[in-house]
Write a structure and sequence with these properties.
mainly alpha; Fumarase C, Chain B, domain 1; Fumarase C, Chain A, domain 2; three-stranded antiparallel beta sheet; 19 helices; elongated
């Protein structure tokens, strides 16, 4: 089946970004995009011809902005900029994240507001289509003046320096370019700066994490519904009449999802009459209010990220027929968005761990302590809840906002920065932890429901358990649980449960 296409310079959603970065969309450089790029270059060249200082074009950078550069040395300045700024450290970004940075930068340049030449966007387009993936260290960006260190490593690949991944192998960029029929690109005025300035690294890392966070949210509804039935709780608090009296969109969606998952439960019918309990604990009763608030935070974060992906974050910019120096490279909006989303996912993991605790405590009807078949001789799922507790606690530390900090750089010229890249990286870790906690709740709840057999849970829950059991079988005694818990986590992260979850969520 031929790939659908994306026209460079077009508006992005998180889904289209992920598909393009993952190679599932054919990226097309249109004639309209080329016209925009050429027009902006003409404006830049007129500005250079005037002899007036234009930041980053015929001047130095940052605190060195007052240093004028002679015309014959301008190309050297751009190459030196890339080389000097490529000082990122730490483990490399995932290939999809690195490819995402390249795609996002190319998409922004194709809007025709940066003043680069046509040859540069064509070169980057070829790199993207031929699968040349820059090797980009994860640490080094403070999230203002763009993700300078991160994107310098992307720019290195374009000029034939540094390392890349190509056809599954790590190799020098120059070798990969040659294998793809390309030559190392020779940068002209403004082009090194145009590759470095921008928020594409935090957009890519945080964008992928946000999509995954939404999968975790959907799986948490499934885990909650399974836990409710395992604990013989009541779905009455999920009634639509209650949500209408507190009309947050997320709450209504979470309650609707939980009702659908629990519809037709035989377990519920078995204790609907004569149960002396009046109310369930908050982690069950208030799930729509908590899960819903998490959803609303994620939705707001998505709104911010998609706006940023449709923005121009370079500096200086070609706008209104002139070259203007500004601050669109500052990542404060993204930093706030990822910090907010990290706090929300931390809360989701917290409430999920509380339900896993209740399920494994074995105090509900039909359940045994720690879900062991022979308590005392067997420890059952006792330590699975410990793992959830450890990860929930780790998230509480990671939830401290990166956006609360700023460390001045560039001799105080860049005196207030966003720390947006750290917010994105931290959020990514929070999402992973939350996925594991939700997976642990789901595995524990699934094991608890075994004690209710032959009674069945809700139709949606049973569909979800069927998916889980395709890879994670029920325990028949004490065993090493690590593999099962990790498999369940990968199923959550990959969206394995999405087909059976309510798409209206």
């Amino acid at each position: 089946m031929p790939l659908s296409s994306f026209k460079l310079g077009s508006r992005l959603t998180l889904e289209s970004f992920a598909r393009a970065a993952g190679g599932d969309l054919k990226v097309v450089l249109t004639s309209a995009a080329l016209r925009r790029v050429a027009a902006a270059r003409r404006v830049l060249e007129r500005a250079m011809a005037s002899g007036k200082p234009v930041y980053g074009v015929n001047t130095g950078f940052g605190e060195l902005a007052s240093v004028m550069i002679s015309r014959e040395r301008l190309a050297a300045v751009q190459r030196n900029l890339v080389l000097s700024h490529a000082c990122g450290v730490g483990e490399p970004l995932a290939p999809c994240e690195a490819r995402g940075i390249l795609f996002l930068r190319l998409n922004e340049l194709s809007r025709g507001c940066s003043g680069v030449r046509l040859s540069l966007v064509r070169h980057l387009s070829r790199m993207l289509s031929d699968g040349i993936i820059p090797l980009i260290p994860s640490r080094g960006s403070v999230g203002a003046s763009g993700d300078l260190a991160s994107q310098a490593h992307m720019a290195l690949a374009a000029i034939g320096e540094g390392d890349v991944l190509y056809r599954g192998r790590r190799m020098p960029a120059a070798n990969a370019l040659k294998a793809a029929g390309l030559k190392p690109f020779v940068l002209a005025e403004k082009e090194g700066l145009a590759l470095l300035n921008g928020t594409q690294a935090m957009q890519s890392v945080g964008g992928f994490a946000l999509l995954t966070a939404e999968r975790v949210w959907r799986a948490a509804n499934l885990a909650c519904a399974a836990s409710l039935d395992a604990l013989t709780g009541t779905p009455a608090p999920y009634a639509d009449a209650i949500s209408r009296l507190k009309p947050h969109p997320g709450q209504a969606g979470a309650a609707r999802a939980l009702r659908r998952l629990l519809a037709g439960s035989e377990i519920r019918r078995s204790h609907a009459a004569g149960d002396p309990r009046v109310q369930d604990s908050y982690s069950l009763r208030c799930a729509p209010q908590v899960h819903g608030a998490v959803f609303d935070r994620l939705a707001e974060s998505r709104r911010v990220v998609e706006i940023e992906m449709r923005s121009v974050t370079d500096n200086p910019l070609v706008a209104g027929g002139r070259v203007i120096s500004g601050g669109n490279f500052h990542g404060q909006a993204l930093s706030f968005a990822f910090d907010s989303a990290a706090g929300a996912l931390t809360t989701l993991a917290n409430i999920s761990e509380r339900r896993a605790f209740q399920v494994t405590a074995g105090i509900a009807p039909r359940l045994k302590p720690f879900l062991a078949r022979d308590p005392g001789v067997e420890s059952g799922f006792m330590i699975a809840q410990y793992v959830a507790a450890a990860l929930a606690s780790e998230n509480k530390t990671l939830a401290h906002p990166a956006s609360a900090d700023s460390v001045p750089t560039s001799a105080n010229k860049e005196d207030f920065v966003s720390m947006g890249m750290w917010a994105a990286l931290k959020f990514k870790k929070v999402v992973w932890n939350a996925a594991q906690v939700v997976a642990i709740e789901l595995v524990c709840a699934a094991q608890a429901i075994e004690f209710h057999r032959p009674l069945k849970s809700g139709r949606g829950v049973e569909e979800g358990l069927e998916v889980l059991r395709s890879r994670v079988k029920a325990a028949r005694g004490d065993e090493v649980l690590s593999g099962k818990l990790e498999t369940a986590r990968e199923m959550v992260l990959s969206g394995a449960f999405d087909p059976i979850l309510d798409k209206r969520e």
